[in-house]
């Protein structure tokens, strides 16, 4: 077993860094006993983030917006540029994950990296992360329900698509995903392995069909075509909004971080999982994006359709083939929601372990039979259902609630990276960036600030109740509740991540 990394050696090349500590010894050094089963190998850890990023789900959900906000030029070159920026964010997060490989992930590291007010930094990061993940599960499963209904309507034209049906289907999806997460970690790992191959094979099938079957493709120069149908006359503003297509897709890669306590050699495999998931998603996503763009036949008509990417498939391949490919998309969305719920559950487990949630003693308990935080699973499912419920009456209300997904997550990503940037005494783990760590962190924080500003700007004009961007309001509500709660009771009882004792003491508390 190797010794911890010496700060003086952190400036050396990564291959000179000592090997990681034993997983349990690392967890004990952070003050926690082992409660969860370590069944995730390196591939499984990568799979959780790759599945949550989910290029098929992300591109098919936001492609229509990109057709109006910049068109192919921004969809292609914006994808490349934003992917590079997200790699900086992932690298900065990975370095932190290597130093603090725990289920608490972002909120835990924020509490450890803060110079002062550790409890407050940890508190706000944890609640932003919680809200963002709950919103992510709700939004993904709601999108899956929408595509399921679109498929049913294509198969049986007499079927009536209604908001009530969408909410009911979403509730059924959440139930199945909660049941899957209730059983062993091994089952979740197997499903995530399947999801990787579903995504990769599905991407190959989609791209092959779009390249081989259409009788007509757009010319190579079409990748530079620019379109601004956002309603705003300023083309640069429209193009900047188009960058959100990639930013919306690249959320959830903190899943590898949250699964650290169930990952073998987590100090290395968790950061590698983050980086591999982002890199693989960037490459495969670009290929799928190009295939969709060059298969476009009638740009104006397809951009104005209720589901533009589905209309692209129908026009290019015919209804029969489009329906088969839609099943691939629906499957990808379902796997994405499952992985998102898994990550959300581990954050709830860790946050409750430190006493930061109402009823904490319930939510951090682990089933003695399955070794999973079963109660946290059902809390995650219930909270997502609460967010989905307003969709029964209004699509606008639902959009307002789940818009916290992207801003909540990216702010939660930014806080520990920002705190690491301010800290001169940061002691890295085995996977680290050496002397480039602060530069990478600075680029990551800069991009997070820029992207969050874009997330909260108006995205279409004229602005009305239907087109208004509710993200700032949703963020303000979360911060207002967290602030009121903090100053009334939480600041007196929550001081950030707790330690259950010395390494020897917590080792004696291990349940496995």
Automatic annotation (TrEMBL):
Keyword Coiled coil part of the UniProt annotation: no
Membrane topology: Multi-pass membrane protein
Compartment(s): Membrane
InterPro entries: AA/rel_permease1 (IPR002293), Amino_acid_permease_CS (IPR004840)
Annotated segments matching region Disordered: 1-21
Transmembrane segments: 46-67, 74-93, 166-184, 196-215, 235-253, 274-296, 316-339, 376-393, 399-419, 439-457, 469-487
Keyword field: Membrane, Transmembrane, Transmembrane helix, Transport
UniProt protein name: Amino acid permease
Phylogenetic lineage: Bacteria, Bacillati, Actinomycetota, Actinomycetes, Kitasatosporales
